[in-house]
Amino acid sequence: MTTRTLPIIVAIVLPLGLMAGCGDDDTSTAAGNDATAPGMSESAEAPYGTYVRTVTKQDLARTAAIRDEHGPHQELPPSGDYQLVIAKGAGQDVIKATTPDGFTIDQDIVTKGDVIRLTSYVDPSVASFCGPEVPAQAQYAFDAREGTLELSPDPTDPCADRDSILTGTWRQG
User: Fold this and answer.
1) Confidence of residue 42 (pLDDT cuts 50, 70, 90)
2) C-alpha–C-alpha distance, residues 119 and 158, integer Å
3) Any idea what the CATH number is for the domain that residue 53 is in?
4) One-letter-per-residue 3-state SS of 40-67
5) Within a 13 Å sphere around the CA of 90, how many CA atoms are in the beta-carbon half?
6) What pLDDT score was predicted for residue 23?
7) Which residues are CB-contacts of 15 (< 8 A; sequence separation ≥ 6)?
8) What pLDDT shows up at residue 44?
9) What pLDDT is attached to residue 70?
C-alpha cells in the first residue's frame, strides 16, 4: 500500500464508521408509540406447546348434522389419540393436528385475547380438515391453564371434522 492510497481509504472508511455510530440504540418505545408494523395488530400470546387428547365417537357424532363428506378424499376422521401443536412460525404462527394414524393438518393462526383465529391451510393440496366447499377460516376461544388447553368454536365452526377434533380439553404432552 502506498502513502497516496492510505488517505483515500481513510477518507472513505472514516465517514462510514461515524455514520454507523449515529442514532439511538434504545429499543424501548415512548408511551403511546407502537413498535408493531403499520397496519398490523399486536397479537396476544398463543398457548404455544404440544397437547394431546382422545377424540371419541361421541365427539364425531356431536357434529354429524353439519358433516359433509361428499368432496374428494373426504372421510370421517378416526377416533383415538390426537396430538395438537401450536407453534410460533417465522412469518405466521401455526396449529397442527395429527390423527392417530399420523396424518397432520396444519393451519396458520392469529391469536388475539383468548381467541385463536385459524386463517388458511398451510398447504390445502396436502391436508385440510374439510373440502374446499367449507371455509378454511374459523375462530376458537381458548382457556389455557395448569397444563391444559380448552378449545371451543367461537361462535360455531362450519367444518364438522375440525370442530370434532379441536373442541375439547387438551393436556400438555
Assistant:
1) very low
2) 14
3) 2.40.128
4) CCCCCCCCCEEEEEEECHHHHHHCHHHC
5) 0
6) 41
7) none
8) 61
9) 67
- Cell 472508511 -> residue: 13
Cell numbers placing 161: 371434522
Angle at 131 between CA 128 and CA 133, to 5 degrees: 135
Q: Is the bond leading into 155 cis (omega within 30 degrees of zero)?
A: yes
Residue 11: Cβ within 10 Å count: 9
Kindly report, residue by residue over 7-36, the tens digit of the pLDDT. 433 344 344 343 344 443 333 333 333 333
Q: Residue 106 CB: number of other CB atoms within 10 A?
A: 19
Which pTM was predicted?
Answer: 0.73
Give yes or no for residue 154 having a pLDDT over 80. yes
User: Per the domain annotation, does 113 fall within a domain?
Assistant: yes
d(CA 127, CA 104): 7
**Number of domains making up the chain:** 1
